[in-house]
From TrEMBL:
Signal peptide: 1-22
Ranges that cross the membrane: 36-59, 71-90, 96-116, 128-146
Superkingdom of the organism of origin: Bacteria
Keyword annotations from UniProtKB, A to Z: Membrane, Signal, Transmembrane, Transmembrane helix
Classification via Pfam families: DMT_YdcZ
GO cellular component: plasma membrane
Source species of the chain: Methylobacterium variabile
The protein, known as: DMT family transporter
Length: 147
């Protein structure tokens, strides 16, 4: 794994946790979860547009659009559902529990997706160590939730 990619992933994970607190605080101040989600989405758009000079922006042709699997179009909706859950629940659950639950659920789901090669991922068998790692994550979240 390239070191730079790993460092960027670590920073993204840290930002994701801080984002939960920022979004929950914004929701508390505004008192409107949907308005909060729209503000968050607008801020996302600003970041995406600011990244254009670095990563570019192009429009695929119709033939390429027709090749996209139906489920791939749902990623944005899934992201929106996650952000809305973050806005509503992170403040109630706390950073550790909310992040622990979402990261653990994501890890268990990713091991399943890797094992079966679903939704475009390469197949990686869910061997004993991966399953044990998932179990340890569940145990860790249980400990964080209880104490």
């Amino acid at each position: 794994m390239p070191v730079l990619a790993a460092l960027i992933a670590i920073v993204a994970g840290m930002l994701n946790t801080v984002q939960a607190g920022a979004n929950a605080t914004l929701n508390k101040a505004l008192g409107e979860p949907i308005l909060t989600a729209l503000v968050v989405s607008a801020a996302n758009a600003v970041v995406y547009l600011a990244a254009v000079p670095f990563v570019g922006l192009g429009w695929p042709g119709g033939g390429r659009l027709a090749q996209v699997p139906w489920w791939a179009w749902l990623g944005g909706a899934m992201g929106g559902a996650y952000v809305l859950a973050m806005i509503v629940l992170a403040g109630r659950l706390g950073a550790a529990v909310f992040t622990g639950l979402t990261v653990t659920a994501g890890l268990v789901t990713s091991v399943l997706l890797d094992h079966y090669g679903w939704v475009g991922f390469a197949q990686h068998p869910a061997g004993l160590w991966r399953i044990l790692g998932c179990g340890l994550m569940v145990g860790g979240v249980a400990l964080i939730s209880l104490f």
